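fold-stage: in
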Amino acid sequence: MSKLKQEWFLVAMVAAIALAMVSADVGKSGGILQLDQVTAIGIAMVFFLHGLNLSPKAIKAGVTNWRLHLYIQSATFIAYPILWLLFGDSLLAFMPAALAFGFCYLFVLPSTISSSVAMTSVAKGNIPAAIFNASLSSIIGVFITPLFIQLFMNLDGAELNLMDSVFSIAKLLLMPMIVGQLLRPLLLRFIEKHKSVINKVDKIVIILIVYNAFCDSVINGIWSEFSAWLLLYCIAICTLVLLFMVHGIQWGAKRCQFNKEDEIAAVFCGTKKTLAAGVPMAQVIFGSDPALGMILLPIMLYHPIQIFYCALLANRYAKRLAK
């Protein structure tokens, strides 16, 4: 039971998907719960809280190590997209297009903030560099993720749609973060006092978005193309991608002669992909596309796999450095 409490988020995501299969009319966009409206407000709240939690001093402390920043951002926004260029056609050949494009979307997402920094901290790595790079990745992702989607998925409407997406994502994610930063001096004591509750807000919003997306996809019959074998293939692909990137970044960090603390920051910031920003960004980019649930599936699978494996890796780093 205690294990279930610890992993309540993953359990709730699975429950949301299962519930969508039997109550799609309730959670669909424009349905009784009006979840498309509710989640829009929730997303703004989540990124407002992210802005409140970001420490300007810690970010400034990590600014100067430009070689490490370039290495991490290259892993996130160059190495991962190259995987799609190499293997995208193969994915499109053996799975539904919406699911294959879900992997494309996974590969072009920015890094996480909270878990990247948390794992770096557990592993005794360079925490200021982790905070700076995770924050920088989120900002770059607002502009570069829709651009990559435009280029790789051959979406119609070209420039106007792209600029609309960038503007909408900036308004949805960056503006609340900026407001949060501006109000941080006034609200810092309040958020520290209620940290345990605040840390659950983003997870609750993600669960509602996932439920809404899967209700829409069930209503539109998207899952008729899906099978249990395909789910296993997706899990295997996510695992192989993560292992390849983790050990590739470790190998590259040694060749670049980074110290162990910088290597740790590179591993945990360079291999993470954000579910918290990825889900709302997908809503903006793909709009009311009935295939949204399937597009989101790869990041939903990758998220728990990265958390599990990186937690083991962080513990291993910490033990080695303690010797």
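fold-stage: in (second)
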Amino acid sequence: MLTTAKVEEIRARIKCWRQQGESVAFVPTMGNLHQGHITLVKEAKQRADHVVVSIFVNPLQFGQNEDLDGYPRTLEADQAKLVDAGCEMLFVPTPAIMYPKGLDRQTFIEVPGISNELCGATRPGHFRGVATVVAKLFNIVQPDLALFGRKDYQQLQVIRTMVEDLSLPVEVIGVDTVREDTGLAMSSRNGYLTAEEKAKAPALKQALDALATHISAGGNVDNAISECKASLTAVGLTPDYIEVREASTLAPATDADHALVVLAAAYLGKARLIDNLTFNR
């Protein structure tokens, strides 16, 4: 596996693949890789001739008082996992490479509406940073397809909207959330949880399951959300938001909508957990 921070080296290798008529799949990450990331890489391997992964802890998507400096960086371990998964090229740029003019002078991409709701309301500017870095990575790697986990459901919708609006020639593929045996969605930030908190964390998925069951059976949405919040609070989680939306657009759900998604975020110790569940009624 080639590991490089040089844009020209990435482009030269991909140009060679293109000249041979071969396809390229791309998995952008912030590193500290877990089985969820590796599942994306293996899925990419099934869908394209070559797989490129990036590791970049993007300062543009971190707000004030967030965990940019403390975000876990585990490059050597990540490289070993990627080699085993079949990745052929790893792009590891620095902030100076990605943002040579500095963050204050960087051109931004912002997806209106959806970027300011849910996680965007709690983390203003976050999805502007996500959209900007993903667009830049797409321009560097120029993949045929890119894979993202559905755990970050709102992020996936932001990227899909950006790709559609800007006519980018990239197929965006969502891959099902990978969970621990307890049901907890795998996340790099799960490492912030203490052993006691780790035992409580699966309550988030359990609460979403109960909410979906209630609504699917014809129950009232507002009542289901209230019960969900109460169940989380009872075990020590602090809900940020719990909302039911139309699954494809993330518009607020109406009585006429059948394909739904419940999206949730909750604080537990130093960690902010997010999860979602799609269901029909």
